Amino acid sequence: MSDTLSQPESTTTTTSADGVTGVDIELIGVTKKYPGQRRAAVEPLDLHIPSGEIVILIGPSGCGKTTTLKMINRLIEPTGGTIMIGGQDARRRNENELRRGIGYVIQGGSLFPHLTVGQNIGVVPGLLGWNKSRTAERVDDLLELVGLDPARYRDRFPRELSGGQQQRVGVARGLAADPPVILMDEPFGAVDPITRQRLQDELLSIQDELRKTIVCVTHDIDEAVKLGDRILLLSEGGHVEQYDTPENILAAPANDFVADFVGAGSSLKQLTLTRVSEIELGSHTTAAIGEPTDAVLTRARAAGDDCVIVLDERRRPRGWPWLRELRNSSTIVDPDDDDLATVDRRATLNDALDSMLTDSHGAVIVTGRRDEYQGVVDFTAVTEHMTAAAAQAAAEVDAADSNPSAEADTDDQPDQAAI
Amino acid sequence: MAVTEQTRPQIPTRTPATASTKRTRPPIGLLGIPIFVAVVIVLWLIWRLTADLDSTELVTMNWSALGSALVQHIKLTVVGTVLVMIIAVPLGVLLTRPGFRRLSGPVLAFANGGQAAPSIGLLVLAAMWLGFGFWTAILALGVYAILPVLRNTIVGLDGVDRNLVEAGRGMGMSALTALLRIEIPLAVPVILAGIRTALVLMVGTASLAVFINAGGLGIYITTGVSLFRPGVLVTGGVMISSLALLIDWVGRVLEYVVRPKGLR
Q: Rounded distance, CA A346 to CA A364, Å?
């Protein structure tokens, strides 16, 4: 996750570098108004979706997020405006050909019940006129990609699969013809929370590999924060409230609407976004096994620590005894503490905090490669990081506000004028 | 009516893990009906071969007369049903397309009227207009039996999950491809149930074709009644009801065989 989250800015202008296979999507003044309705379902909407990113559309029901999504593949025809996909005007193209080049993944998979798993995945290749062997090969590749054994599942019917498996096949079907753009409409809405989490992780690892442009509708802010490189928060009528990275939306909501929608606990959500490796580790007195106790005690007192971390010959933490426990022997013995809590430097701050709460030291040991000791994280470090992040996000949002050409904000002014 | 019966037949799934827990016996209805009909026919044959028949009965119930009446009856039923299918299924498809949907009310009302009108009245009116004979009988039977097929086609197509159709369109299927590859296959069980109902209606109503000189097993009913020959009357009754049961059975077997595998 840290990979996808840490590089949104760098890929916005390049389409071919870094193995990105997606293309840009540009919505310019796109509107949708249904006959007989006074308010437009989607007010003029300008949006730039950079290639290779996951952009999440989120908002309360009736905010036009699904309408916006379906206007991209023209399942709903926009009333006005232009949609450019990879530099081509979507409305100038034949709608069926356009859609064959855009993956479409729907809630619950929406598999065709009378077709086998393989036939379901092979629908779009079939429409594109691929021959049988090429399609069959592709079907097997995709089943492997989504973690289903081709030999076992290829010839099954959808009702013989669990909900999570159906959803996996749905994702595979969306990827079938290797489209640069994939649209997802509440893709994981119909599965249980544990399966959903696993599917989200799998989607992220697939995305790490493929780097498609993914536009995804959800109503679950946690899913949005987890999956999104950017989140577009809409209110009724397709009005853009904020379009930014999850970090900035959580740390610096643009207005009360966003703050309300993100809800309480946005700081807790943010903890899952930050890796331990991203914050500065505190140093702590360490001791090697076999070292004279007196020297260690002197060192610890000088540093103001009342406990030391004992490391073995390969610098792996073995225990975290208090100074009074050390006085019993003249040299440091191996404490061999099985319950010693450590976190990997790739763990999230959420994991680190979890360990701290159950540990008497009010901190947790961070390890790196091959469990080597790296430092400690304590409560103060976490809170300092959160404060700094909030301040930085606020500064970024302020800068964007004062600069009308910043992409996150381009659609804000005309919208407010329209109301 | 027939629409609700279509969920009954089951076969074991191909999933090894669940195969043992699912029902493995064939649906009882599929075996019971032909056995029952066979028993009835055998009983009738025993009676026909051993009874002391008078000359009138021997003339009306000789084997070749029985055979040709049976063939005529089946012809009326099958030709009528095929024509109804050819008209009602495409019409039903058309009436579920956007743009024609608002016509479905009036058309269904007409079809309802066809079924509500007494079939004997329809038959006689058609004969007064077009003259006696086979094709006039077919027309009247067709008007009578069009409703179940038309209605089930519409109900079946409307019953297809819109999300699936939209999924198909969203993946780049044209409206026609989505119709042929998603909507119709998924509606097949319901449409077939309608056709089976039409077949059974046809078998019964074809007995009336004898009034406009179109033949069929109805001759045994009219003869039996007008000449007070209970044996002839019962022969007609046994023949027609056995045929109806057998045709219904064939319809069920067809439904079972044609239903898409993933839906069984």
A: 14
Q: In what order do the strands lie in the sheet with A317-319?
A: A286-288, A309-311, A317-319
CA-based R_g, chain B, Å: 22
Residues 6+ apart with CB under 8 A from B206: B73, B76, B77, B80, B137, B141, B216, B217, B218
Best CA proximity match to A223, nearest among A254, A258, A262, A274:
A262
- Reported ipTM: the value is 0.74
Tens-place pLDDT, residues A288-336? 888 888 888 888 888 888 888 988 888 888 888 888 888 888 888 888 7
Pairing of strands A42-49, A88-89: unpaired
Distance CA A378, CA A362 (A): 6
> Which of A73, A110, A114 minimises the CB distance to B263?
A114
* B174 CB within 8 Å of a chain A CB: yes
* Interface subset of A 170-189, CB within 8 angstroms of B: 173, 183
Work out the minimum CA distance from B224 to partner chain A, whole angstroms.
51
Q: How far apart are CA A215 and CA A67, in angstroms?
A: 12
Mutation pick from B13, B22, B171 vs chain A, by most beta carbons of A within 10 Å, is B171
pTM of the model: 0.70
DSSP for residue B180:
I
CB contact under 8 A, B15 and A123: no
Return the SS3 of A28: strand
Which are the contacts of A136, defined by CB distance < 8 A and separation ≥ 6? A118, A122
Beta-carbon pairs below 8 A across chains A and B:
71
**Interface contact B167, partner A, CB < 8 A:** yes
Contact B173 A160 (CB under 8 A): no
List % helix, strand, coil for chain B (3-state, nearest 5).
Answer: 80, 0, 20
H/E stretch holding A141 reads helix A132-145
Q: Which residues of B touch A75 (CB under 8 A)?
A: 166, 169-170
Structure tokens at B127: 């004969």
**Smallest Cα distance from A320 to chain B, Å:** 51
